[in-house]
């Protein structure tokens, strides 16, 4: 590795960091370093999701989520086809089970059309049954653009291409400190010191802390929410053909418990959304006192908690009660029995929370003189990864003095 400073160092080996690195590596004569704190790539948010390639149905038209998801989705499909990564544009249905959900279902269809989705199809009860014989609903919406993939496999391929193009990847390397030394940044890590002219923060669950290490007040705090899944037993996977979602509550950024066929043929059911007491805590008893104190002493958390405490209690109850979790799933599939599901995995979402108690509901990227910080990139960040990486590359070309 050269003793000269790198032009750009990327912090974070998830799907956004590796996509950014891969696209930056196409630029001529730009030296790149990617640092990942864990021993492998995609260790957290990227590697703990169901692998859904989102359509862009839910997002406010014109928002960064909507624009990046629409462009990123098709770019991802092309990338997977070119790189021979298994994927399936299988489609999904959103199902209304109550009369009060019919108007929101219509609004979803309108929003999807505004976001460029074509061939959306309104379904009646019999048409729902034709697509998903075990699902009951009074109306539905078929969304053909939705698909599934293994995002860990996508991340690894991004990293392989990054290294093939001359980028340097260092695992087990956690950033401890960042200081300026003239025109350079001195990055102190668990594996020694690196120098870089510029830095891009794609730290996911640690993005706000990395920003503070770099001297930026991000104006928000990451509060972790754990999503827990059940899985259909192998002999009951035939209950679901593809993806089935409820009509979401527009007050929350979470989509409600749903059924997802995965690229490995398994079927996940969930997730719930419970407050996590550790940023990388995937078990119900996982706790980090510094992580917990981080949000307990944040006024934005208490403002949010006061507003949503009833919902939070319900989600926590479902975390501990299999019967309650299955009852929520029965809204979509009344015949589902307790024995049809078994405990699955869990993921932690990095939810950016503002001091006002408002959940940050869009991607947020901050640019400083020598740095770019991706402070909020929840779902559909994986779907949007190529377009986010392209956006960051364009920002780097504009803000940084590259060769």
- Give the number of helices: 10
Overall CATH architecture of the largest domain: 3-Layer(bba) Sandwich
Q: What is the CATH T-level topology of the largest domain?
A: FAD/NAD(P)-binding domain
Structural classification:
alpha+beta
Structure write-up:
- There is one protein chain.
- The protein has 403 residues and is an alpha+beta fold.
- It has 3 domains: 6-46 and 152-219 and 364-399, 3-Layer(bba) Sandwich (FAD/NAD(P)-binding domain), CATH 3.50.50.60; 92-144, no CATH class; 221-359, D-Amino Acid Oxidase, Chain A, domain 2.
- Helix content is 31%, strand content 26%.
- The strands form 3 sheets. Strands 5, 6, 7, 13, 14, 15, 16, 17 and 18 form a 9-stranded mixed β-sheet that branches. Strands 1, 2, 9, 10, 11, 12, 19 and 20 form an 8-stranded mixed β-sheet that branches. It has a 3-stranded antiparallel β-sheet with strand order 3-8-4.
- Strand 11 (184-189) and strand 12 form a beta hairpin.
- Helix 2 (64-83) packs across helix 10 and helix 8 packs across helix 9 (322-330).
- The longest helix is centred in the C-terminal third of the chain and has 22 residues, at 299-320.
- The two termini are 19 Å apart.
């Amino acid at each position: 590795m050269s003793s000269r400073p790198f032009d750009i160092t990327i912090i974070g080996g998830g799907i956004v960091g590796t996509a950014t690195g891969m696209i930056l590596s196409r630029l001529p004569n730009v030296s790149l370093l990617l640092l990942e704190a864990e021993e492998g790539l995609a260790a957290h948010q990227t590697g703990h999701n169901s692998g859904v390639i989102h359509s862009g149905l839910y997002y406010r038209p014109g928002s960064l989520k909507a624009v990046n998801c629409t462009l990123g989705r098709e770019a991802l499909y092309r990338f997977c086809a070119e790189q021979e990564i298994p994927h399936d544009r299988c489609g999904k249905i959103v199902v209304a089970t109550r009369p009060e959900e019919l108007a929101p279902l219509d609004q979803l269809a309108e929003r999807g059309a505004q976001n460029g989705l074509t061939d959306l199809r309104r379904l009646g009860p019999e048409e729902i049954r034709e697509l998903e014989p075990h699902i009951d609903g009074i109306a539905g919406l078929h969304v053909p653009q939705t698909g599934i993939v293994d995002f860990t496999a996508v991340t690894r391929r991004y990293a392989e291409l990054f290294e093939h193009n001359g980028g340097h990847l260092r695992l087990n390397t956690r950033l401890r400190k960042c200081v300026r030394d003239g025109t350079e940044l001195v990055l102190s890590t668990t594996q020694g010191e690196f120098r870089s002219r510029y830095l891009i923060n794609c730290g996911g669950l640690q993005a706000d802390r990395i920003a503070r290490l770099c001297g930026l007040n991000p104006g928000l705090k990451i509060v972790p929410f754990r999503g827990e899944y059940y899985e259909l037993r192998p002999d009951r996977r035939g209950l679901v053909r593809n993806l089935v979602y409820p009509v979401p509550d527009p007050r929350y950024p979470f989509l409600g418990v749903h059924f997802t066929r995965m690229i490995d043929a398994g079927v996940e059911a969930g997730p719930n959304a419970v407050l996590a007491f550790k940023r990388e805590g995937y078990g119900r008893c996982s706790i980090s006192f510094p992580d917990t104190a981080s949000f307990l002493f944040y006024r934005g958390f208490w403002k949010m908690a006061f507003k949503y405490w009833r919902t939070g209690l319900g989600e926590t109850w479902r975390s501990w009660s299999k019967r309650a979790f299955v009852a929520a799933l029965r809204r979509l599939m009344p015949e589902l029995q307790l024995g049809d599901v078994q405990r699955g995995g869990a993921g932690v979402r990095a939810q950016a929370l503002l001091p006002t108690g408002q959940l940050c509901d869009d991607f947020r990227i901050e640019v400083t003189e020598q740095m770019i910080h991706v402070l909020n990139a929840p779902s559909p960040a994986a779907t949007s990864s190529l377009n986010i990486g392209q956006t960051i590359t364009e920002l780097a070309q504009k803000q940084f003095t590259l060769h």
